[in-house]
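Work Package 4 report. The design task specified in the project plan requires that, given a folded chain encoded as structure tokens, an amino acid be chosen for each position. We show below one input record used in the internal validation round.
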């Protein structure tokens, strides 16, 4: 249960509770925001500044043609998002961080740049080539004068132990500032806020931002790739209907597919669940999940992405609500979270103009009629199958608005039976 607003100041206080409602078929496209790494050398964007991206050319001009953020924006546009609100964090240089000792280690500051040449290791006096990986580098066997680095969590493995000397130069990023900027500048617009990195600390910052936005009726879902070195041993870091993970979240080139995912979500809006939809802009993924692995991923409240010959396919639409969370149990699907947010806004936006009016039965009846009219529109679009609205006097200066909605579930399974033989 979430309570928005209070009764200390004049206004609307709304309580959102879990209800058995999951909606589809409402034509309301969404807006997306994303934070990710830019190349400020080749791009003209300023750090911690939100840009309204409407074309691939603008994305590449602002964030650099080879940057992860440019590609995320391009993928989102290709899948149907328009526009994309994007911003890149500022960075600072880390020089000569000491890695003397073992060949396996973790950098002190992650995530780091996803442009390999931005990170330079020197091992026993030899400057090494950095090879990026999105698996556990400790399982690799780097060639001579190379280091395998996972830029998400900063884990690495050198070609030999830096027993005599070892140091590394790299860029660290300030995601807190850039997420705050997106929230402050575009929080009222965006319906999805995505992280371009799977780093759990960054994802936590994004999730915290959408939770803070909730208090101002600025509703959004945080979206990110799950960092899952082991799909079986993974522990879901959140228990929240405002967080959605996907896995795998990289294509075979190591590029994030989060832009494709949020682009499709933006295009669908509340018109349909993304369940079993294909990502037209993605074909070959970093990891191909087996059926047991797919089931394991889904058990952790992470949406599996299937690597199929016809293109990547979204398997489900789960949020990170755990089975032990009764307050949000009916928002365990992303589309459910969106519909509940929409109804909440309908109630708040229609109730707010009545603040300051004389508290009469006529005013309460008018408010009730307006909200019913809005819900009737949802009913006609098959988003809900039923509703009830009641506006009652609480005391001389307070009225209660009770709204109940019943919506249809998205079709999740079809049980087909095919019989070979004589047909009578």
């Amino acid at each position: 249960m979430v309570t928005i607003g209070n009764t200390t100041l004049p206004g609307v206080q709304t309580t959102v509770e879990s209800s058995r409602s999951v909606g589809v078929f409402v034509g309301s496209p969404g807006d997306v925001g994303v934070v990710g790494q830019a190349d400020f050398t080749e791009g003209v964007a300023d750090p911690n500044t939100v840009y309204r991206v409407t074309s691939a050319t603008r994305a590449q001009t602002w964030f650099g043609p080879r940057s992860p953020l440019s590609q995320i924006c391009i993928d989102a546009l290709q899948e149907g998002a328009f526009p994309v609100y994007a911003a890149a964090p500022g960075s600072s240089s880390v020089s000569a961080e000491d890695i003397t000792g073992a060949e396996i280690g973790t950098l002190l500051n992650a995530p780091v740049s996803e442009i390999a040449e931005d990170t330079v290791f020197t091992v026993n006096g030899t400057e090494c080539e950095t090879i990026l990986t999105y698996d556990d580098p400790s399982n690799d066997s780097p060639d001579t004068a190379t280091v395998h680095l996972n830029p998400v969590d900063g884990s690495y493995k050198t070609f030999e132990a830096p027993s005599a000397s070892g140091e590394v130069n790299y860029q660290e990023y300030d995601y807190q500032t850039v997420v705050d900027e997106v929230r402050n500048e575009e929080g009222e617009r965006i319906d999805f806020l995505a992280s371009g990195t799977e780093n759990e600390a960054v994802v936590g910052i994004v999730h915290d931002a959408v939770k803070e936005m909730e208090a101002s009726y600025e509703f959004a879902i945080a979206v990110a790739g799950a960092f899952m070195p082991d799909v079986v041993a993974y522990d879901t870091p959140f228990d929240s209907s405002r967080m959605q993970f996907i896995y795998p979240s990289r294509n075979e080139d190591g590029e994030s597919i989060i832009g494709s995912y949020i682009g499709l979500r933006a295009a669908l809006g509340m018109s349909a669940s993304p369940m079993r939809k294909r990502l037209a802009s993605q074909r070959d993924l970093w990891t191909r999940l087996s059926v047991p692995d797919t089931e394991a991923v889904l058990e952790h409240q992470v949406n599996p992405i299937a690597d199929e010959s016809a293109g990547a396919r979204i398997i489900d639409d789960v949020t990170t609500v755990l089975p032990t969370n009764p307050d949000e149990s009916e928002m365990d699907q992303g589309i459910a979270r969106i519909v509940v947010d929409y109804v909440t806004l309908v109630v708040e936006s229609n109730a707010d103009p009545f603040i300051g009016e004389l508290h009469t039965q006529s005013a309460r009846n008018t408010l009730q009629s307006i909200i019913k009219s809005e819900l009737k529109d949802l009913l006609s679009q098959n988003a809900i199958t039923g509703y009830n609205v009641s506006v009652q006097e609480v005391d001389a200066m307070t009225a209660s608005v009770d709204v109940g909605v019943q919506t249809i579930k998205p079709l999740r399974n079809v049980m087909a039976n095919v019989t070979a033989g004589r047909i009578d």
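Helices lie at 56-63, 68-79, 175-186, 200-214, 258-268, 291-299, 334-351, 361-380. Validation will be extended to a larger panel in the next phase.
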